[in-house]
Amino acid sequence: MVNDKYSILFEPLKIGPVTARNRFFQVPHCTGMGHLRPKADAATRAIKAEGGWAVVCNQETEIHPSSDLTPFPEGRLWDSRDIPALRLMTDAVHAHGALAAVELVHNGNHASNLSSRAPVFAPSDMAVDNIIPKQAKGMDKSDIRALRRWHRDAARRAKTAGFDIIYVYAGHHMTLPQHFLLPNMNNRMDEYGGPLENRIRLIRELLEETKDEVGDTCAVAFRFAVDEMSGADGMQASEEGRAVVEILAELPDLWDVNVSDWSNDSATSRFMPNEGYQTPYIEFVKQVTTKPVVAVGRLTSPDRMVSMIKRGVTDFIGAARPSIADPFLPQKIQTGRIEEIRECIGCNICVASDNMGVPIRCTQNPTMGEEWRRGWHPEKIETKGKETEALVVGAGPAGLECAMQLAKRGYEVTLAEACADLGGRAVLEGSLHGLSSWKWVADHRIYDLQQRGNVKTFSQSLITAQDISDLAIPNVFLATGAKWRRDGVGRSSRRAITTDPNMTVLTPDDMMSGQLPPSGPILIYDDDQIYLAGVLADHLSSAGYEIIFATPATNVSPWTENTLEQAQIQRTLIKRGVKLILGKTLTQIYADHAQLSCIYSKSEQPVEMASILLVTERRRKTELYDILRKNSDDTPFKKLKLIGDAEAPGLIADAVFSGHMAARHFEKSQSTIEREYFRREIIALEGN
Ligand code: ADP
Ligand code: SF4
Fold it and tell me: What separation in Å is there between the alpha carbon of 71 and the centre of ligand 1?
């Protein structure tokens, strides 16, 4: 029974000729699987439908070889041979009673056409969006006519593939219809350029032609970024963004509205902590159109969802990331299991996988992307075999996840943690500026463990090898984590850096355990180049410390390009007055200064500081494992396994995944594990 308070979320709603069973709408999002891994993609979407979403969209789906996003595997509907792969998804989604939607796209100058070698198109001559040695061709009238035909043909193919909702897509700075709309990308002098009525022409034509082609049975959705979030330099919701909605108000069957570019739409919790952060931009839309509206903004709280619908902000609760973190979010609300929702922490590891062109992964949901290839289900796990007991040492993300899944399987689980707080690095990193929602990785799992009768949890329990032997639990999972190095060994220096003992040398672990640096300037040396050094610089500078940030990289936290944060991180540090020294390695640490060396010229630069914070590399904590392994012949362990950062330091997402996999693999033979490592979609060699 649905709690009355939330019943509005489960009211059906018509979208043109189709009806959504409730208000939960999984908006388009990439999976890094797309046309290369269609079975895996279909299974990921099917899980969302099973979890109660009324509408499940695929990802941007290229309509023609001149919109070729290779090497990124997005959806593809270039011709009718692409239909069967997409049919896998629509059948799977329909089998669970949801509507299937497709986001047709022509990416214009955002597509590099590296595989197809087609000319790149744009409204006017300009550079290609990505840094490649090629310029986009300003489209002539015959190109525009061809584009309209391609879109119409793709819509027809999408209908044949079984889609119920077909998108026209103008958002994220990534699509031709939006490029035509933006004055800074459209210098045309003809009826497609100049005043808004002209710049909007292509969108109107695409909407009308899509409706004409498929509108009898399919709804036509319009995804539109109402604001570029660059003030008067771009489109603003208060001006042309609103005018577009006013002009096209009743033309689409559904308005899917958001902000642009992708880094603003998929803003991380670090820079956009509040849920519903897009509401101020999109809330006017429902006042302008009678058609249903879908809105996003990392929405996970059912009370907020109800309020957004009641206040007339939106008709549908749109979600990409919340549906990735918890595909069963709607069902959990419907069945009153709100505490069980795995809330998206806004870390953008899912986004990073797409940016790296690999199958999607999620910090909170280790089964994401593994539904087909590993057969993992987010809510189900095989019951235990013959073994009855397991000990998990370390309650960081790996240990918590492993303990939770082992408990779900039915084992008697003992979980021991040295610290007072459970959560390991999720809690420690979560104490840093901007990362507080990362603690939810721990919260979700601790809550789950507390509900179970078969888990004994001990905090403030530093476990020794003797303790483990005394406990006589035959199956032991060691999730003992990793510690940051203090000797400077890292990517750029495989040897310890000579250090004067009179200099205070700090590590991220010191900072996260609450140690305060001495007064005076702190040199943060980032040879890790992922995210943590940038976070610490932000954390310490916001606490008033004078920071010098040096790195061999040529920008700050370069890996965070993948999470769409890099520019914001660098901007924040510059605004805070952090002195950036880029392209320099650390060669020696003296009592009052450090010596840096240019990665190109090798010219030396001294930097004075009162302390140095080294963010270079981590050492695995394997002491327990090493002792227990040495005695393995005469100890009674049936299972002794290192997991998480103790096995291979990585992201929190990797630690959760490792803990999850260890629990799933427990009691399987090595040969089964190797055979089932994962299924692959092998390219078919038949046909031409
Ligand atoms: P991971 O990301 O792999 O989960 P973390 O560093 O977050 O790694 O967590 C490891 C946890 O293991 C820490 O909370 C640490 O206190 C705990 N730990 C390490 N060694 C022991 C031990 N011998 N006994 C109990 N807990 C331990
Ligand atoms: Fe949310 Fe992070 Fe999972 Fe993406 S990876 S869905 S941002 S928790």
Answer: 38
